[in-house]
TrEMBL record:
The keyword Transmembrane helix applies. This is Glycosyltransferase RgtA/B/C/D-like domain-containing protein. PROSITE patterns: PROKAR_LIPOPROTEIN. It comes from the Bacteria.
Length: 474
């Protein structure tokens, strides 16, 4: 199978890039008009409060750290242009995709850390520094709980929803899964910030091969192979280094992949059991995760395996029931998280930001974040939704993103909150056009849109250079 695309072989790609730029400008313009109409002026606030989602606050700089990401991107693009993703055997390809995703995330983070260090007046930074800083920032909202967890884990879970003020909202915006993850890593002796950041980054990069496996099952191997370079160089990699949200994305991708692969003819029922257990664990990491479960339900429907819904659903309740016995109620946690979102919005001077009418005004901001995070491939994905056999992925991911906006739970950082869902939104970009008449026709399962992939990588590089992409403090 040969697949050596050239940026000039697809005449639609320049138009899609132009449409993508226009869509971002339009969304930011609508957001600014909404702020002006509300009498809030043009001073930027956090994205979820109706302001502009990104602010340019530093100057570019050339250094070995800043050149690392372009060098990694160039190697990946060259490999894709040479068709390496079509020639490697499947398992080595997954390993290569994982290594490339890990390298891209660390390279972007190293460049970002260097620019942050220059802004702070310190020219020294490196991969270990960025992993340490990222891990410290990502875990700061959970560190106060670690001492309580060591003393009495059950007591921590029982009181997890009792403190929903602004000072604790960073940790309470999620279920206790991330806190338990940081605590478990501490029990294993992983307490140094650099080591913790390295582990979180390595776990988060597993998302790429997991998504490829799921797409291979539902959309043919050719589509999965061509999707790998897209996933590796996606702009959302900016927010995956030393991020608990990236780990959440990996856990979500794990249960979706188990469900999709487990629904194939001839698979044993333990796949559905494992899917349900991972689904329950993923729900303990993110309150929007149950929406992603619709992907598994839709896949079971497509493949006419209704019994698997019962098995997966029953096993899904096991992790939630265990934590309920230890004192954490998931519904109470959701209510507390919404209360915390309202408290944070009120402190920002937007008392109604957590209400439905106010949340609807935030949709342009949320759409702008999705457009930037997914790159111009999101435009092709929208154009080819009707052609993709991977539509079940969208059934789960799209409502999850809307849920974060309408409930205000993504208020502190839209970019990080939606990391578990970006990867599924771009799957239709690799759909064939026109749709093959034979469901097994893999020869026409889309082509790699190399120009759009390069544009996505450039988006990440520009954002890394000009924008402050450091994780927000809880």
């Amino acid at each position: 199978m040969r697949d050596r695309p050239s940026p000039g072989t697809d005449s639609a790609q320049p138009a899609e890039i132009a449409l993508w730029i226009a869509a971002i400008a339009g969304c930011l313009g609508l957001a600014a008009l909404a702020r002006a109409a509300a009498g809030q002026g043009w001073d930027p606030l956090p994205a979820a409060f109706g302001g502009l989602p990104f602010t340019a606050d530093r100057r570019p700089d050339v250094s070995p750290a800043s050149l690392l990401a372009p060098a990694v991107a160039a190697v990946i693009v060259l490999a894709a242009w040479r068709g390496v993703h079509t020639r490697l055997r499947w398992i080595p390809l997954l390993v290569a995709g994982y290594v490339a995703a890990l390298g891209w995330a660390v390279a972007l983070a190293a460049g970002n850390a260097h620019l942050e260090a220059l802004t702070a007046g310190n020219a020294r930074s490196g991969p270990a520094d960025v992993l340490a800083v990222g891990a410290s920032t990502a875990s700061d909202g959970h560190l106060p709980d670690l001492g309580a967890a060591d003393a009495d884990l059950a007591a921590l879970l029982r009181t997890f929803t009792e403190h929903t003020g602004a000072d604790s909202y960073g940790a309470r915006a999620r279920p206790p899964g991330p806190t338990l993850l940081v605590w478990a890593l501490a029990q294993l002796g992983i307490t140094a910030p650099a080591a913790l950041g390295a582990v979180l980054t390595a776990l988060g990069a597993v998302t790429v091969p997991l998504v490829a496996i799921a797409v291979r099952s539902l959309c043919h191997e050719a589509a999965a192979r061509r999707l790998l370079p897209v996933l590796v160089l996606a702009p959302w990699a900016l927010w995956t280094a030393a991020s608990v949200d990236a780990v959440t994305a990996a856990v979500g991708a794990a249960f979706v992949t188990l469900g999709v692969v487990g629904s194939e003819p001839g698979r044993r029922l333990w796949w559905a059991v494992a899917c349900g257990l991972f689904f329950g664990v993923a729900t303990l990491f993110d309150y929007a995760m149950p929406w992603l479960g619709a992907t598994v339900v839709a896949t079971y429907f497509v493949r006419r395996r209704p019994l698997l819904n019962v098995i997966t659903g029953g096993c899904f309740l096991v992790p939630l029931s265990l934590l309920s016995l230890w004192g954490f109620s998931w519904p109470d946690g959701l209510a507390a998280a919404r209360e915390g979102a309202a408290h944070t919005a009120a402190r920002a001077g937007l008392a109604g930001a957590a209400t439905l009418p106010e949340s609807l005004t935030q949709l342009p901001v949320g759409l702008a974040v999705v457009l930037v995070a997914c790159g111009p491939l999101i435009i092709r994905a929208v154009r080819r939704i009707r052609l993709t056999p991977g539509w079940p992925f969208l059934v789960g991911a799209v409502p999850a993103v809307l849920f974060g906006v309408l409930t205000g739970l993504a208020a502190t950082a839209l970019e990080w909150s939606w990391l578990p869902f970006y990867c599924w939104l771009v799957v239709p970009a690799l759909a064939p056009d026109p749709r093959p008449s034979d469901p097994g026709d893999t020869a026409r399962a889309g082509t790699l849109p190399l120009a759009l992939t390069i544009a996505g990588a450039l988006t990440a590089l520009i954002a890394q250079t000009l924008l402050n992409t450091a994780p927000p403090l809880p």
